[in-house]
Design goal:
about 240 residues; 4-stranded antiparallel beta sheet; alpha+beta; 4 strands; about 55% helix
Length: about 240
């Protein structure tokens, strides 16, 4: 990789991940990247510069930690667990909802936060925080805010368990990625022209008629910001 390409890589690290010129140079030197790895990193940074798209972000993050490795899903989960900050983790858990698996020709269940099962079984917390006569909290999860949804309020009182739910969300996102890549199934992550949420379905597992519904309320810009921050912290952790 010649000096022109190295300078382009430094420019990309600055524009996409917020590195200073000196910081970018120190990173490249410290990582001791091969020319191929430098090209791969430059291509990844160029890739996410084209569009604020969730799939592009996932591919870029995957390229950092899971090139030619098995169990890419686990690598991606641990990347978010290790390098997302607490508020970012809360926003990730808050911004995605999933149904239980269902057969294509059957009625799907409600989409829920990944914390919902644990929250809904916490009778002590519910008795202290929710008036059972005021809202149907078992039904109204997907609005994401109390009094319709108490999931995130419950999560903030149980942050010791947040990584469990982050892994669950990222695992679902990886399934959505696999549906696009391996099943050629068009999956909507975000709908840019909508101001509320995007609701869609995606296939899971080896059987073609097994599906999960998902709802996305996190803004594309916020998801991209979190992904970029995770990438930057990961790279800095290698220096």
């Amino acid at each position: 990789m010649n000096n022109v390409h190295v300078n382009q890589l430094k420019d990309r690290l600055a524009s996409q991940l917020g590195f200073t010129a000196d910081g970018a140079q120190n990173l490249i030197t410290s990582l001791k990247l091969s020319d191929l790895d430098k090209v791969r990193l430059w291509c990844g940074l160029r890739f996410i510069d084209q569009d604020r798209d969730a799939l592009r972000v996932l591919f870029f993050l995957e390229s950092l930690v899971a090139i030619k490795q098995r169990d890419k899903s686990r690598q991606l989960k641990e990347l978010f667990v290790d390098h997302a900050e607490e508020e970012e983790k809360i926003d990730l858990v808050d911004g995605f909802f999933f149904s239980r698996p269902f057969k294509f020709d059957n009625t799907r269940g409600e989409v829920r936060h990944t914390v919902f099962d644990d929250f809904s079984q916490d009778k002590t917390w519910i008795s202290k925080n929710i008036d059972p006569s005021s809202v149907n909290w078992k039904k109204d999860c997907s609005s994401g805010q109390a009094p319709s949804c108490y999931c995130i309020q419950w999560l903030k009182d149980h942050l010791i368990s947040i990584d469990t739910y982050v892994r669950s969300v990222v695992g679902h996102l990886y399934e959505m990625r696999c549906a696009v890549v391996h099943e050629a199934f068009p999956v909507i992550f975000f709908e840019p022209n909508r101001t509320d949420s995007a609701l869609d379905v995606h296939p899971i597992g080896p059987k073609p008629d097994d599906f999960i519904s998902h709802e996305v309320t996190i803004k594309p810009e916020r998801f991209f910001e979190i992904g970029r921050n995770v990438a930057r912290r990961y790279l800095l952790s290698k220096v």
